[in-house]
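Record type: ASSEMBLY
Status: queued
Input:
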Amino acid sequence: MPDSSSRAAGELTVVHTSDLHLGTRGERDDLEVLRLVLTAAQHVSADALLLAGDIFDTNRIPLAVLDRVVRMLADASMHVVILPGNHDPATADSAYRKGGLGDPENVHVLGVTCNDTALLPTLELEICGKPHMDYVDMAPLLLPDRRASRHQIVMAHGHFVRSDYDLHRSWLLHETDLEATRADYVALGHWEVAQRVGSGDVQAHYSGSPYRAGTVNVVRLDGSAPAVSRLSVRREDVEDRRRE
Ligand SMILES: [Mn+2]
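Status: finished
Output:
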């Protein structure tokens, strides 16, 4: 866990990604994308890594793969907050309830290891989100209670409504609701592209999948408007930074 005394007072760095879809190759999944994401998060000395849904492609993940994921997250020396998505919902047989995924003290799974809020008091940060609990359509944006911490982030996994043409889709996120969160940052998942959505004051961003976007979002919070940038997780860029 990063030493909180090494941070400037009240300053936080959070890395946000989603849609890793681990396990598409079964036992042969090399988890390379997770390694690249974790290395990038370590490069910016992230205090927390947010995984906004569809981390696993399916809940039928071989235990050997789960076991390696658990060890990688436990060794990450940062908080990891996971929101179950529509591919990996927090069902009774969810990947998040098997293989000890919720056991490491730095790993927080919304709807599994805590309710809809992960409280990280050493970071003065609370992360709220409505996990997918099954495969059925629902409104995926949680309107948080009045904040109890200095910093508040909302996570949601769903489809942002750009026009009426989107209304036939599932798990819809409406701009008015994003604004109503009043959160410092809204970490979205479900889209493959990295994109800010909404035109109001609340910063709501999709990270995109690391495969398609080639980046993760880096969010710096210091009590004023969050600074959001993107960091490459392409293998050659991650290896280059390592050699610096
Ligand atoms: Mn999804």
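Annotation: The mean pLDDT is 93.
Annotation: Residues 53-54, 85-87, 157, 190 surround manganese (II) ion (CB under 6 Å).
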